[in-house]
Amino acid sequence: MDFMCLSDILHARCNPCDRYQVEDESSHLDEMPLMMSEEGFENDESDYHTLPRARVTQKKQGLGWFVLGGWKLLCTSCCDWLVNTCRRKKELKARTVWLGCPEKCEEKYPRNAIKNQKYNIFTFVPGVLYQQFKLFLNLYFLVVSCSQFVPALKIGYLYTYWAPLGFVVAVTMVREAVDEYRRYQRDKEMNSQMYSKLTVRGSCFIRTDQLDGETDWKLKIAVVCTQRLPALGDLFSINSYVYAQKPQLDIHSFEGNFTREDSDPPIHESLSIENTLWASTIVASGTVIGVVIYTGKETRSVLNTSNPKNKMGLLDLELNSLTKALFAAMVVLSVVMVALQGFVGPWFRNLFRFVLLFSYVIPISLRVNLDMGKAVYGWMIMKDENIPGTVVRTSTIPEELGRLVYLLTDKTGTLTQNEMVFKRLHLGTVSYGTDTMDEIQSHIIQSYAQGTSQSNGSSNTSTPSRKSQPAAPKVRKSVSSRIHEAVKAIALCHNVTPVYESRAGVNGETEYAEADQDFSDENRTYQASSPDEVALVQWTESVGLTLVNRDLTSMQLKTPGGQIFTFYILQIFPFTSESKRMGIIVRCGNMAREGLRTLVVAKKSLSEDQYQDFESRYSQAKLSIHDRALKVAAVVESLEREMELLCLTGVEDQLQADVRPTLELLRNAGIKIWMLTGDKLETATCIAKSSHLVSRSQDIHIFKPVLNRGEAHLELNAFRRKHDCAFVISGDSLEVCLKYYEHEFVELACQCPAVVCCRCSPTQKAQIVKLLQQHTGKRTCAIGDGGNDVSMIQAADCGIGIEGKEGKQASLAADFSIKQFKHIGRLLMVHGRNSYKRSAALGQFVMHRGLIISTMQAVFSSVFYFASVPLYQGFLMVGYATIYTMFPVFSLVLDQDVKPETALLYPELYKDLTKGRSLSFKTFLIWFLISVYQGGILMYGALLLFESEFVHVVSISFTALILTELLMVALTIRTWHWLMVFGEFLSLGCYVASLAFLNEYFDVAFIATPTFLWKVSVITVVSCLPLYILKYLRRKFSPPNYSKLTS
């Protein structure tokens, strides 16, 4: 639930989201699309009105459009309309919440619970069945299996059809039930967490990592008038209410009012983002009491989370298309058979029987083998010692890891550790690095030992009261004095608060918690809304000046000698994206070339009169109703002039282990990397450089902030002229561009070697993923570690979560969970490659196994006067797809074309996978021709060589068929594994052993004769030898890329 803090003072330094308004444009802009031709961009930027109009072609919605896919679009639209009608969402409205008077609330609001389950107890079975039978393969076999209940159409035993189909559906339902139960458990755990009423301490930290991806702690401001109440119970005795805006997606803004009516005059206070605690944030330190304003589905976190979708891999979609082609070929063949009969008698029944006879063209074992293969791939991934801790949470899409073109990654916690390290201090004439910090420490000790801290006054307290003093003549300060001033300024200008944990074993009430705390140096930690500030304060501690205490009005510093100096806080100017400074801190870009986050530190001495004048203007600006932010910024800026420059600091954001080589590996593999982050533009650009997402020699085009269509038009024109440069854009500008120039923007962005989107909300991240899918048709992968990455991960074709500092929400919602970003290299290059290659080979071989026996059936029927009589019946058909060929065929899941080391050494091999050449209509046509050739040879050979009894045809052809399949598996394998050899001999042994028991189908006396052996051998050699010769010639004269590396 989202609530407004009342009793505790929560102060925060949140980075506000840039707001914008889309202004109404003149009618000529509505009629003028952005031109993407070079001629259009040759015009002057300011003369965009003169750009020629683009030709707008309209799709012709005729019969051809309907047949080629329009029917599917119409059906989808109708279904969406029906669902939206049945599940019409309640309109979101602003609300008034009365303190302690729920009876005054007229509106009914959602339950304060979240639900991530896909189904309920009533929709589970129909929902799962729908997901299964919307696939053509499963729907086809359902129809075929049902046809066997009709006596006139029955051509085999019921179990030969229903057992495989039932097995596939049962396995799927069990898997979905387990996943659904896990989602239920996670929801139950989340919904059981409640906010408790706590006592007042005056300040409170919150963690927002699961909402916006930022791991630092934030301090926020509570309503002022409730802080003055004598007791907590008085909250329910006052007559007051909160007016809150309607629920919306933006997590960085809030507008509302707090009104107390029982005071004279009534008190009105404006409320903003600084007064709120959203759901999914954690009270990390201190206590808080609040009033709930949003619940359940109306909270910011739920509004920014998309519903999980059922993901289907590209390989499954390709196989689904191939099965449709096979079905069409099967129907055509059946019609030909009936036509050759002359359409005599009950030809329609004969047509259906032929369809059933050739139904093995589309084997149900295809689905079984692929699902079992996916389970094996998942097991191999989780057992890989080189990527420990990897978890496969969605076992249906491992092949997607080998088809990725776009990788969309979060920044904080994914590419970086979000741990800042102080690297450099620059005083203008001298620079100190990590290896010379001991010199700074010596200067600090020397300064305080000699009493150079007299600027703080003769006492241990620095007060705000200062009288006007005549300006002293400027003299050149010593290095020691300059270092002392710089370090003291860094130690004072920040929003950092030292936190001390309670002593272990003390379980007192909250009121006495402070007495139980250990204030030793070892027990102190620092918390702030920016990890940069924490790094600066930790550095000042390391050189001798330590921040030991801070509250809302003062802070205390401890010198190397143990003296405590108290400084009173008069005003704090929070950091904003517009001013790019906090207090007297501004941004500088010199050391940014080294990938450091730089700050300029300066100071200014004020007299009492100067401060009083500033305070009066500042208070008046804060009370303004219109343009409050602009007026406050103007007053603060008037103070930040003629300042004394003290130093420059450089802080480095530590990258995750091996981020740079991993990104280089992915780029060489042809994967385009986009960084989507909620952080500021400057920080995102800095990390893009330091991680080598953008090379140092590469130009960066920063998209200027735009508010309307005209500005977006000009900026896109400017961007179009740039070539081979990285692209950086903020979330608000992105939204304007997508509103008016969606297609043009995506087209331009996809041409960039790297793209950085900063200040992105969780919803925008998911929107970018969907745009890439729609406009490029390529497979996307999203990787992140925070709750704000869940929508992006669920929207991508393949979602990868990292277990990190931001919790497990992303890893639990992802398809694959890894421990470190560097593991993605092996996950894609090795396991993604193997999964796709193996499934492609397995799928095509299973289809070949069905095609060859269907070809034999067609030859048999045509020879025997086009009779719709099955060639093989009963156990032979079941055994053919199971114990006789299953083990060798399934052993293809162990095959590999290159070793893992080679795949990692030559990531360029990954590019071939994205082209889909391992499974295409071309490769399918080759397997189809092989099947027709081998089926024809086996059947015609058996008919030519059979003896007087028909049973000899069955024994000769079926034995040759089994041997041919075993040899074809051997022909397909590229790297032998001992289990493959075992599977070959096991299947052959099972077949030989079963001959003695299948007297119904085989003449045992004939099988034992040399005649049977030489006839079977001849047929088998003729069917397989030419293919072995062709494979040898192809390997010799046109070898694949991987064979060149392994030779």
Automatic annotation (TrEMBL):
**What are the binding positions for Mg(2+) in this chain?**
D410, T412, D785, D789
Q: Does the keyword GTP-binding apply?
A: no
E.C. number: 7.6.2.1
Task: Could you list this entry's UniProt keywords, alphabetically sorted.
Answer: ATP-binding, Golgi apparatus, Lipid transport, Magnesium, Membrane, Metal-binding, Nucleotide-binding, Translocase, Transmembrane, Transmembrane helix, Transport
Mark out the compositionally biased spans (Low complexity): 450-463
The active site lies at D410
Q: Which domain of life is it from?
A: Eukaryota
Its main subcellular localisation, reduced to a broad class, is Golgi
**Cofactors (names):** Mg(2+)
Membrane topology classification: Multi-pass membrane protein
Q: What is this protein called?
A: Phospholipid-transporting ATPase
Tell me the organism: Acipenser ruthenus (Sterlet sturgeon)
